[in-house]
Amino acid sequence: MTRAKKKRSVLKEAVPPPPQRTPVQEIALEEQIVGAPLLGKVKSYDTKSRAMSLILEEALMLGDGLRVKGRQTDLAQRVERLRVGGRVVQSALPGEVATVEVADRVHAGDAVYKVPIA
Q: What digits encode the pLDDT tens for the residues 7-44?
């Protein structure tokens, strides 16, 4: 294998695949926030660490505001701790599985949006 081919294959592996966009039809009307970018849906919630995980559809950084909306959930907060692959990071890219500590219980399937928080 030549250097150029080897370099291209390494680059392909480093870039995460583009995220699957959640169709609007899959989000209940009470969970929708018009005008706010959808970060994804809660994949799981760990009660011990009080953290949710989700596959990101948009980039997320420390300090960003997020809002979790569901049938039993309505939580707004700032991102203070963010992990990707078990490592603490400053930002996460679309397609990555991010773990965010949350102030209250959330449920799998809840919609997560990026919102401005004053």
A: 555 555 555 555 666 665 566 666 667 678 899 999 99
Relative to beta strand 60-61, strand 87-88 is: unpaired
| 65 burial via Cβ count (<10 Å: 0-12, 13-18, 19+) | middle
Which pTM does this prediction carry? 0.75
Note the pLDDT tens digit of each residue in 64-99.
Answer: 999 999 989 999 999 999 999 999 999 999 999 999
Domains with residue ranges and CATH for the chain: 3-115 (2.40.30.10)
- Pair of tokens at residue 100: 């965010």
Q: What is d(CA 84, CA 100) in angstroms, rounded to the nearest whole number?
A: 9
State the DSSP H helix or E strand holding residue 14, giving kind and residue range, or none if neither.
Answer: helix 3-14
